[in-house]
Design a protein that fits this description.
The complex is a heterodimer.
Chain A: H1 7-13, E1 15-25, H2 64-76, E2 80-81, E3 88-91, E4 101-104, E5 111-120, E6 127-140, E7 144-148, E8 160-164, E9 171-177, H3 187-205, E10 217-226, E11 236-241, H4 244-263, E12 271-275, E13 282-287, E14 297-298, H5 309-317, H6 323-334, H7 338-347, H8 350-358, H9 363-381, H10 392-403, H11 409-420, H12 426-433, H13 441-454, H14 456-463, H15 470-480, H16 487-498
Parallel strand pairs in A: 11-12
Antiparallel strand pairs in A: 1-9, 1-10, 2-5, 3-4, 3-14, 5-6, 6-9, 7-8, 10-11, 12-13
Helix pairs in contact in A: 1-4, 3-4, 8-9, 8-10, 10-11, 11-12, 13-15, 13-16, 15-16
Chain B: H1 4-10, H2 14-23, H3 28-46, E1 49-52, H4 54-69, E2 82-85, H5 112-119, E3 124-128, H6 162-169, E4 175-179, H7 186-192, E5 195-198, E6 219-223, H8 226-236, H9 254-260, E7 267-271, H10 281-296, E8 300-304, H11 312-327, H12 348-359, H13 362-374, H14 381-404, E9 407-411, H15 427-431, H16 438-443, E10 446-454, E11 461-468, H17 473-491
Parallel strand pairs in B: 2-3, 2-4, 7-8, 7-9
Antiparallel strand pairs in B: 1-3, 4-6, 5-6, 5-10, 9-11, 10-11
Chain lengths: ~500, ~500
Amino acid sequence: MSTPVPYAEAVAEFEPVIGMEVHVELGTESKIFCGCPTAFGAPPNTQVCPVCLGLPGSMPVMNAMAIESTIRIGLALNCSIAQWCRMARKNYFYPDMPKDYQVSQYDEPLCVDGYLDVTVPTDDGPMVVRVGIERVHLEEDTGKLTHAGGATGRIHGADYSLVDYNRAGIPLVEIVTKPVTGTGALAPEVARAYVTELRDIMRGLGVSDVKMEEGSLRCDANVSLNLPGAEWGTRSETKNVNSLRSVERAVRSEIERQAGVLKSGGRVVQETRHFHEDTGVTTPGRSKEHAEDYRYFPEPDLVPIAPDREWVEELRRGLPEQPSVHRARLAEAWGIGDFEMATLVNAGVLELVEASVAAGVAPDAARKWWAGEFTRIANESGVEPGSLAVAPADIARVEELIASGALNDKLARQVFEGVIAGEGTPDEVVAARGLAVVSDDGALLAAIDEALAAQPDVAEKIRGGKVQAAGAIVGAVMKATRGQADAGKVRELLLERLGVSDS
Amino acid sequence: MSTPLERDLIRQSAATLAEAIAEGEVSAREVTQAHLDRIAEVDDRVHAFLHVDGQGALATADAVDASRAAGEPLGPLAGVPLALKDILAMKGVPTTCGSRILEGWRPPYDATVVERLRAAGIPILGKTNMDEFAMGSSTEHSAYGPTHNPWDLDRIPGGSGGGSAAAIASFEAPLAIGTDTGGSIRQPAAVTGTVGVKPTYGGVSRYGLVALASSLDQAGPCTRTVMDAALLHSVIGGHDPRDSTSIPDPMPDVVAAAARADVRGMRIGLVRELTGEGYQAGVEQRFREAVEILEHLGAEVVEVSCPHFDYALGAYYLILPSECSSNLARFDGMRYGLRVGDDGDRSVEEVMSLTREAGFGPEVKRRIMLGTYALSSGYYDAYYGQAQKVRTLIQRDFDAAFAQCDVLVSPTAPTTAFRIGEKVDDPLAMYLNDVATIPVNMAGNCAMSLPVGLAPEDGLPVGLQVMAPPMADDRLYLVGGALEGALRDRWGHLLIEEVPSL
């Protein structure tokens, strides 16, 4: 086995060509050919029926929403939508396939020939790369196999294998890019940016929850290397790429590995490879030297799909704004830059901030809560920020209370803690926990006097005009009132008490 | 031994029985029990049934009797028992498709046809024998032994639905369901002197029909009279949202057509390509006589040519195996039915392979191999692709013929029933039995076979095939009803009444 070549060296010598095959599980209520639910995480084989189990005699009926979603994806990716096309059977024997064929599409995909522009940062500023879309087609997902025993976690060498057909028949959209050339050293970033943009488009369309960790968005990365001016090299197809970060790492690692193979005079084998999240490298899987013959033919149990042109145009008119355009518009409206926007996107809270702003929260405040406190709570409890039990209206209400002086920042955090814990609305939490800013001047003055008496030297400094020393007294008062005082108010009273002014 | 009453009950038409049940002259239980008794009496010789569900049939019969006692309205065939081809899924009842590979499988669901039979109060006596996965024309390819023709127990009852046809012809049931992919309802009807209808493709739901060739399969009625076929056809027919290829339009009124039974003013086309060489003399003779009767009844008979029918058989034996190679892939021993070789060491591929090797018979393997080859990359265009073009040409031949004629006619099968064992080792000779029935499956229109006499040379039944355009199934019944009536007038009885007693 050859040694991988360091990345900079690899891309200095070779030109990478990449291609992406992304599978997106559609978020339809029911499966593609039957009425079974599609919810993730149900006990194995509880969301099945004769149709998705492929029992003898059962027949598929196409889910109209799956067609609609596929067309909307195609339109969002600037594809042409077929006037007439058919599903096809892809024949191969494998126990995760209840019928031993997969209903997919072959030479008549629903959407073809589109593109997606993605932006990658470079030293010379952002660069836009146009990724060509070869095709977007619809198919059924397979069941999920779990191999027990054996060293590899694969079917060979396993003691036994379990199969869960809950996933069988979930509508799956396959999006295949054209080969992407000329990206040089940026190939891994382009791959990542493409999948990220695609994910955001799917979210914007509302067609899938696109959770890579749950497999509702799966990515295969094809990589080949060639010398400048030479023909394209043999490609490998890397699977098991389960996060955006992994997309980038997998492409990078493949470039390093293939460069090593080529530099040592070897030959890249056409094969599937498995990416390992822990080590960041790929290992060989199934050889594709001898292409498997899937014996495709048109699915006779389904009628052809002939989307009405007017309907397609209606779907086109109903498309949401492209994520990149949408983000630029938001950034401008909120007065933030690329970096701040990227932070929100990476934290997965952009839509949450948007919803909060729509509910009346100031953009800065919405960003602060979501990118800060809520992201922290979510990370601590290992959930997505979006699944926290806090509604935009709650944030709006808390912000109102802050503005009126009834809450300060620290108390507000406690209110949200209560809301998220299910203790009720912000007002209920405030009441139940007794969280109100102490604004009774008498109580505050008593606390101030107490603090001044405890720190006579500080008091003296302030009297002498060192107003900045007031912080120590304010801090002591805040501590004494367990944060329930309004710090601004305390400061104001303190200065008044000592007969000095702030200027 | 049957009592005279029971013997009489089993020889009635379904329409007569339904009326007697509705009128309270006889109970559904008595009618069902009479047929169960008949099965017990003769099926050791006929072997029409693979599984008899006496309990289930009697429970349905009792429910019909209870409904009637409660004054509830009964369907037109309520309480009249039926034999179901073992290719339709029936909840909790063994469904083998005549194959070892499905031995012991009890479906957890009902086919739409079965649901409709149940809803109509039709007791289902059991599952009938068939060529394995409906591949064959004699039932000799059943893994459970052949069915015998009640006209001569040494002869085949046709296939693949020989069990359903023989059940009807031996008075084990007045009604049966068959399925027809290339003639599996019509050819058995022809060689057993019974009536069989292949409805328009999409006219009867395929949901729950274990697929042989999805684009060709169609379930339909097997009966002794044209009216009984119409009544059963209207029970099982009509749109089913669970079958995407099911036609949403309302089906034609076949019962009214069977009652009208009138061919006056109709133009009937004699298909030139479906006569002559390969057709038994006695078959041709009875066919010509029947055509003369139709003319006499007021139809205009013209000769038409459908030149591409000559290629139908060849194209059929590419399309059918292609689809079947895919449809039968699921029988891999992983989820249900037979599993062979799972000793803890063998790989999943080896177990699949051993299971399929042991579970499928030679004809099934032959067609799976043909189909796998025809769909292979590099051969697809030359085989499957060309066959689809022939299919289009056959459809155009039908379109042209139906532009001139209301219906077309031909002999149903080129010969009368042959002897068991005679063709079983000669696949091509076996395939030729369906030469006249295949074009209709290829085009998706509808056809009926009805008995038109016994061939003089062997005294065995001859069938005439009526073919009509898609969704013009009513025309089959107009012609069939008229011809049946005229023949009954001529003979003084139905042909089936000449069947030897067993």
